[in-house]
Structure formats: structure tokens, C-alpha cells
Amino acid sequence: MKINPPETVIDGNNPFKEALFGREEFAKSLTNLLQNVSENLVIFVNAPWGAGKSTFARMWRAHLKQNKREVIYFDAYAADYFDDPFVSFSGEILELIDRHFPEGKELAERREFKKTAVEIGKKLAGLSVKIGLRAATLGAIEATDFKDLEEAGKEIASGVSEIGAKVIEKKIENYAGEKDALKSFKKSLGAVAAKFKAENGFPLTIIVDELDRCRPDFALGLLERIKHLFDVEGVAFVLLVNREQIESYIQNIYGNKDTRDYLLKFGSLFIDLPGQEPLYSNYHSCGRDGYCVRLFHHYELGNRMAQRDVDLWGSCIGIFAAHFALTLREIEKAFAIMVLYYASLPTHYSNPLLTTLLSVLKVKCPDIYQRLSVGQIKADEFFDLTRFYQMNCRSSALNLEQAVDNLKYCLLMESEFKGLSDADRNRITHLGMYLGRSRSNIIPSICQQLDRFSLQPL
């Protein structure tokens, strides 16, 4: 058996080969939107953590490259040690020009863009020597471009005690010059974007990933820079984010503010990455089912269970993943728990219903799982909390009535069990006999085994 999840390898000839939830069609629609809208666009693509945003970004980028469309992929988390995202964006644009155009550094538009970018960089608050040296080390912008920035940094460092009226006076005197510098920068960026679209048939596009993992000040600073400095026709941004997390950054930094309205200032369009639809969406349940099948074969789980249990096990994990709306990462975590459980057993013993249900609950509903593990939850409460009776088991090997009877056998209090009719008690007892052990200890003993090992913190 294997215990590590599979790595998603992007096939350059077929980038969406491993895609789920109709994301290939979504990517193509997104491509058409960028190609057909002439105005600058800032698009937020929203999905929770673990929903596959980064994998989608890599697939889409490979698809665009396959179709001769060069874009910038910007890992915001990898760059958030910069004090200002402006340096990173400017450096990425210069690198894209160098890759895409044969004349590269000799291009007039490139020279003008670099010149104006350095001027803006000198005027941005908080840009210090340290940041200039970091950017130079990475080659984002040539080291010679930061001589002036170094001098400016020394002035800032030596004059901290003198900040006051003179600084304010100087800022006021330089206001017109700063406006001109910004105007020149946008003009040069517009020229680069126009040339790029003429050659590429596609806007100058920057895909921003991992924004919701950055420091809050860096993440919001990046949005501010996009809004105020890169708001130029022919330039498009696609930001893959967990919207709730970005809104929490706004709340933390700006306090009691309508975060949704505030975030709307930065984006042209907010859309959800497919796969986040409400429960019982058959189309997207198929995506989860497909991923479960892929993981089942990857982990070689069929080798550790009786053949008669394979179909039921597959139905259980697919149904529970859909019912509890597991993200792709949560599905991986549930599989990790089950893999270690089956690998630690000496025989091919399995209970598909309980092992899959408890593994999913451990990931998605840890409070319910904890109470189950110590036998402190009643049957009726469990069914209410999990909405178990609403489970969609149609066209599957899982019989909902039998599943309910199995769980009742494990969860009913002794007084409730004895209060059943003879027919109901015999039926439930017959279904539960193969579970072994005393009724009240079945679920806690399985939980004890599931808790014995863990690949990673849940």
C-alpha cells in the first residue's frame, strides 16, 4: 500500500487530463472572457482552502502556454517577504518581455517601462535598501537600478528623528512630480501591454495565486497596488483566493468595515471556482466521486479489503464526501486516515460504512467524531446533526435504511434498544451482529484504531 497522496502532474499536451468539476470548460470560458474584453480586468476566482485553486492555476497556465499565450504566474506567498508587491510585479513583467520578444532588453517599450517603474519605486512609502537588495539578488530588476533607492533608504534611515513638518513640506512640494511619475508609469505600462496584445493576441495577464496565505498587510498592499498602479487597459489580473480569508484581513486591519463592499473596490468580477456548489449537486458530486476513485486506486486499498466490500466502500466514501461537502484536500485527509487504518490491520477485516463515515467525520466534523469516540452521543442527536436521513444514496451500493439500522445498533442506549419492537430489534441485531464486540464499544474501538496514526495534523 501507499500512504502519501498522489502528486498532480500537469501534462503539457493535455493540461486538464486530471481536471475535475468541469474546470476545463471553466478555464476556456475564462480565456475567452479575457480575450474578448478590451478593458482592464481584475477577476477574483473564489474557493475555500483545499479546493484545488493552485492545481487549477497550473493547469490553466499550461493550457494557455499550449495555445501560445504567455502569462505571468505570481506566487504571492513566495514573494511576501518583499515590503512592497510593486517590485515583484514590475520584475515579472520585465522577465515576461525578455522571454516573449526576441529583442528583449533592447525593446524601447521595455526600457521606458523599467525607467518609470524605478521612479515609482523610489517614491513608494516603505521601500528601503533591504528591499532593493532583495529584488536585485533575485534579478527582478537590475542592481544598477537601485542605486538611487539605496541613497533614498539611507536618507530615510538617518532622518527618522527629523520626521515632521519638513517631511510633510517636502511631500507637498513633490506632489506634482509624483503625479507625473505615476502618469508616465501607466503610459509606459500601457505601451508594453498594447505591444504584448498585438503580438500575443491576449492581454498582459498576471495570475496571482496563494494571496490568502500571505501576511495581511502584504495581501491588501498587493490589491492596492493593482488598483492604483496597474489599472491600465490591456492589463488583466486573475486572483485565486479564499474570499472569506481576504475579508478577514480587511476586518483585522481596518476594523469594523463592510468587508464585502470594500473588496468590491478592487475587482471587476467575482466568480466561484467550479466544485463549490451546494450539496446534492449531481454534476459536482461526480467530480468528488472521480477523485475518490483515483485515490482508491492510487492507495491500492482494494488489496486490503475483501472483494465483496469494494463496491460498498466506494459508494460510502463518494456519498459521504458529497453529503458533507468535502474539499479535495479534505478528501485526501480522509483517505490518509483510512489508509493508515487498513495498513495497520493484520487481516482483510473492514467495515466500509463505519470506517468511511468516521474518517470523514474526523476531518469535517471533529466535535461529532470526538463525542462518538467516547460514546457520548445519542442516536437521534447523531442523525439530526449529520442530516443522515437526507443522504442521497440513489444508484449506489449503499442502502440508506440498512445504514441507519447499523448505526442504531451501535448508538441506541440500552433502554432505547430494549424498547424497540421484537421485529425491529431482531432486524437491527441481525444487521449488527457481524460487527462483533459489544454494541456500545463498536464505534469507540474503531475510533481508537483510526486515531493511532496520523500522517499530518488535521
Word description of this protein:
Strand 3 (about 205-210), helix 9 (about 215-230) and strand 4 (about 235-240) form a beta-alpha-beta unit. The longest helix has 26 residues, at about 175-200. The chain is built from 21 helices and five strands. With about 450 residues, it is mostly helical. It has a five-stranded parallel beta sheet with strand order 2-3-4-1-5, with helices on both faces. It has two domains: about 25-270, Rossmann fold, CATH 3.40.50; about 280-450.
Quick description:
The chain is built from 21 helices and 5 strands. The chain is mainly α.
Q: Tell me the helix content.
A: 55-70%
Name the structural class. mainly alpha
Mean pLDDT: 78
Q: Enter the CATH topology name of the largest domain.
A: Rossmann fold
Strand content: 5-15%
Main β-sheet, spatial strand arrangement: 2-3-4-1-5
Shape, principal axes of CA atoms = elongated
Q: Which parts are unreliable, with pLDDT below 50 for 5 consecutive residues or more?
A: 125-165, 278-285
Q: State the CATH architecture of the largest domain.
A: 3-Layer(aba) Sandwich
Ends distance: 21 Å
Q: What's the layout of helices and strands?
A:
Blueprint: H1 23-36, E1 41-46, H2 53-66, E2 72-75, H3 85-100, H4 108-123, H5 129-138, H6 147-158, H7 165-173, H8 175-200, E3 204-209, H9 216-228, E4 235-241, H10 243-254, H11 259-264, E5 269-272, H12 282-298, H13 307-323, H14 328-343, H15 352-364, H16 366-373, H17 379-386, H18 400-411, H19 414-418, H20 422-432, H21 442-450
Parallel strand pairs: 1-4, 1-5, 2-3, 3-4
